[in-house]
Structure formats: structure tokens, C-alpha cells
Hints:
Elements: E1 2-6, H1 11-26, E2 30-35, H2 40-46, E3 50-52, H3 71-85, E4 89-93, H4 97-106, E5 110-113, H5 136-153, E6 172-175, E7 192-194, H6 206-219
Parallel strand pairs: 1-2, 1-4, 2-3, 4-5, 5-6, 6-7
Helix pairs in contact: 3-4
Amino acid sequence: MKILLCPLSDGGYLYPAVAAGLELRRRGHDVSVLGRSTAAAAAADAGLPFAAAEEYGGHRAFSATWWGPGGAAQYRATVRAARETGADLLVTSVLCNGALLAAETLDVPVVVVGLSVHLWDYAAGGDDEPHLGRTRQSRTHDCLRIHADLREETGLAGRAPRWGDDPLLGDALLLRGDPELEYPGALLPGRVRHVGPLSWEPTPDPAEAEAIGEQLSRSGKPVVYVHL
């Protein structure tokens, strides 16, 4: 099977997708990466073929900062790259509406690599979940609105959505955390699965790693990195 990884190119999204891609390659699949040109070094470090989205009309297409406004460019780049590679499956990130709609246009399945916890509405339960800032319902509503706006912008508004009124999950959404991190008693949607951390990072630059180590040793404080 030919698989195109098309996640956001920022490290917190790119690296887990690369981890999934390496496992898929280990299982015998043909895996390549589509992303911003800044992701080329990470793909090379992983030994995966890389295509720059900018060469397919995808300027700002896979930037976490521009995940909303960059949707149309992401759609165009993904469709073109997937057709060129003959992709049978797309693997993308949460918030990649362009890749989701590209999968519909191409009529191929798409798997979404999620965060450590579920971002949107639960299937059931969680009604008494405390909210620190925006509610889960508000976040889901806004993401669905942005997806619907992009569907119209890309000319797909007249086409029946593949996933009905629940398009953000793709064909499957993979969570990188543990069920214990979800709100007690809440039920995840049926297309959501926990798969573990999907750990991978590119080989660090020795000089940069040494400089960071020296700085941390001077501070004398522990460092904890958390990506939800």
C-alpha cells in the first residue's frame, strides 16, 4: 500500500506522524511525507521520501499557525501530491481540514493522528466536565464551521460528506494518550482509538544539545515537556 503522510509540519504534529509512518514502513508499506519545506530535514532523518508542499501550491499549507486560513492550499497540495504518488491512504493531523477533504475528493481513506486527549465532543458523558476557557462544545462547533467553510471554498459543498455531520475524525482518529486522561465516565466516538505516544524525534544537533544541557545544568531545575 502507498501511504502519504500529510500532517502539520510543526514538530509536535510531524514527529508522531513520522513514528506512525515508520511503523507502517516496517510492516511493508510504501510511505512518503508531504509537508512544508522546513520538514524536509526531519523526513530525511527518518529515511522517508519527502515532497515540499510549496511545489504543489501549498504555501502555508501545513502550518499550525495557519491551520484555518491555509486549508485551501493544503487541499490543493494534498490532492496533487497524492495523485502523483498514487497514494492509497492518507495520514494527517487534527485540524488538517484540507487533507480530510482531499481524501474525499480522491476517494481514499484518511487516518488522523490526534493529541494525547480527545479535542472535540464526546459521544456521551462528560456533561459535568469543568471548563478552563472554552467549552468542548464551543471548540467542536467552531472547528466544524471552519471545515464547512473550506468545503464550500473548495467546491465540495454540493457533494454529500463522507462522514455526515462528524467529519473531523476522518476514517479513524488515533489518540496518543491513555484512556485515564479522558474525563471520567465520558465515552469516545466509535472512530477514536488510543494507540500510545507514537514517539519519534529527529537526531539532535550535538552542539545544540550540548548548549541546552549546559543551560539546564546551570538552572538546576527539572524540565518537563507536555504536548496535549
